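Example record

One chain of 258 residues, shown exactly as stored in the release files.
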Amino acid sequence: MAKLILSMETTMLKEIPLIKERTTIGRKPHNDIQIDNLAISGEHAVVITILNDSFLEDLGSTNGTFVNGQSVKKHFLKNGDTIELGKYRLKYVSELPQQTSNADFEKTMILRPGAAPKAAPEPAAAPAATAPVAVPEAPPAAAAPAAPHTSTSPGMAPLPQSAAAPAAAALPLGAIQILSGGNAGKEMELTKTLTTLGKPGVQVAVIARRPHGYFITHVEGANFPAVNGKTLDSQAHQLADHDVIELAGIKMEFFLKS
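Predicted structure tokens for this chain:
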């Protein structure tokens, strides 16, 4: 499974497996990775994981988030990437093949009743819970060498972790049609590996295109999306032809193109 190795200077502090849909990083105690340092914002950044893929997003932090020395707002993590938060480092370790590329890092289709959709990047997902990891201001006295790279990766439980290209090609192309609001009637083809929908900061979900179907998973927001009137949980839900999705106050229909 993919993990983050937290260190400060030459001292390794923690190893955090990425087994959650959202792994939050920040100074406040409710974060999954709590770093008690004034250089870290209360809610600094989040890592969103889908199958073998993980994405880093800065949450509007004061001092910024850096990956391999470059300031980032959103970043598709690759094995060996180093996230820099002040004087702390989080090394991303995952040796399994990734299913998504930067080219497939689909932008969020922002849904606003009565307004035309605008684009803004946003990815996500993978269930399971883990206890928050608190990091003190001062590092432990004993230094330990960085842990070796490990394999395996987290994922949304119902989805496969490998895909044969022929099977993916055989899958009919999916699409969504907006049913309510000012954009009613608009269609969007789900050609990317990941397509995120919703309104960032309010409610966001991701639709993943996999070899044997399309799956929707909650990413952000206190309320979960609903399919055919039934509210989803943190597990990925496979979409069927003509399912009606309710997300961010908008209804839309998922359908397969012949």
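Notes: Helices lie at 165-170.
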